[in-house]
Amino acid sequence: MTPAQAIDDLRRRLADGLAQIDPHHRLLGRPVSYRVIDGHMLEITYRDVTGIAEAEVLGVKRLIGQDCFCTVSPQTAEQIIVRFVVPLK
Questions:
Q1: I need a labelling partner for 21 at 20 to 30 A (CA). Which of 35, 46, 49, 59 fits?
Q2: Domain of 59?
Q3: CA separation for the pair 67, 61 (Å, rounded)
Q4: What is the dihedral sign for C-alpha 58, 5, 3, 49?
Q5: In what order do the strands lie in the sheet with 32-37?
Q6: What is d(CA 44, CA 69) in angstroms, rounded to the nearest whole number?
Q7: What is the CATH number of the domain that holds 56?
Q8: Which of 46, 29, 33, 34 is nearest to 7 (CA)?
Q9: Tally of structural domains, the chain
Q10: Separation of alpha carbons 34 and 45, rounded Å
Q11: What confidence tens digit (pLDDT) does each residue in 14-57 have?
Q12: Among positive and negative, which fits the CA dihedral 11, 13, 19, 22?
């Protein structure tokens, strides 16, 4: 699978499954960006997130279906940025 195909597959899985694992719409509908890092990793960034629970992070990791890293950092006093970094295989 090419990196472009892997990215399309991840986008589709997230679009199809996010509604089930994100009942409070903390990630669903938020601005999201995808960025390839060094041709080997994909960074998925959700902005303007009001909060995130561990269950939602684990749900996204299950949707991604492979080992990935998640970081949460402040964006403003009321909003955070949630980043998932996924290896492209």
A1: 35
A2: 3-87
A3: 8
A4: negative
A5: 32-37, 41-49, 80-87, 69-74
A6: 10
A7: 3.30.565.10
A8: 34
A9: 1
A10: 7
A11: 999 998 888 888 999 999 999 999 888 999 999 999 999 999 99
A12: negative
